[in-house]
Design brief:
This protein is α+β, with helices and mostly antiparallel strands. It has a domain at 49-156. 41% of the residues lie in helices and 20% in strands. The chain is rod-shaped, with a radius of gyration of 35 Å. The model has no long low-confidence stretch (mean pLDDT 83).
Length: 158
């Protein structure tokens, strides 16, 4: 057996493969940082699409609340033996209550209810059905978001 006690090793020496691995990882990290930095400079607008969607859902909830209220208030002094035109007049008169002093609706989408006609109303023996389609729009910069809200109201008379 040999004795290694007398053999002096150079404690400062590093294996060539470890040196290459370290250098290549530093170069790769540097290139990655440079790439991400240059890519970041090309992006000049951050898109907050979730805020538009939240605004649309908030408007949808408001429109739904007001539509339910308008629909329920339209039945005052209405009988099932009346015509579609009578219900339409009642609903348009009720709709006037949802305007402010300047003549604007509380929610601008309620203005679309002015175009409701007799084709949207079905009166059967003891049921009145109202079909509505409302478009809720939100714009931000170049992004336009449209939500088509469809609702079917049904009132059963006994």
């Amino acid at each position: 057996m040999r004795e290694y006690k007398n053999l002096k090793l150079n404690k400062k020496a590093v294996s060539l493969s470890i040196l290459l691995l370290t250098l290549s990882s530093l170069v790769l990290s540097g290139l990655s940082l440079f790439y991400f930095y240059s890519l970041n400079n090309e992006i000049n607008e951050i898109i907050d699409l979730h805020t538009n969607i939240d605004k649309i859902y908030g408007k949808k909830d408001l429109v739904d609340f007001y539509l339910n209220d308008i629909f329920e208030n339209s039945f005052k002094d209405f009988e099932i033996t009346s015509s579609e035109q009578a219900f339409l007049e009642n609903s348009k008169n009720t709709l006037k209550n949802y305007k402010d002093e300047n003549g604007n609706y509380f929610v601008e989408e309620l203005q679309q209810l002015e175009s409701v006609n007799e084709e949207n109303i079905d009166i059967n023996e003891n049921t009145l059905i109202l079909h509505l389609t409302i478009s809720i729009k939100e714009e931000w910069s170049d992004i336009k978001t449209v939500y088509v809200y469809e609702k079917r109201f049904e009132k059963v008379f006994k």
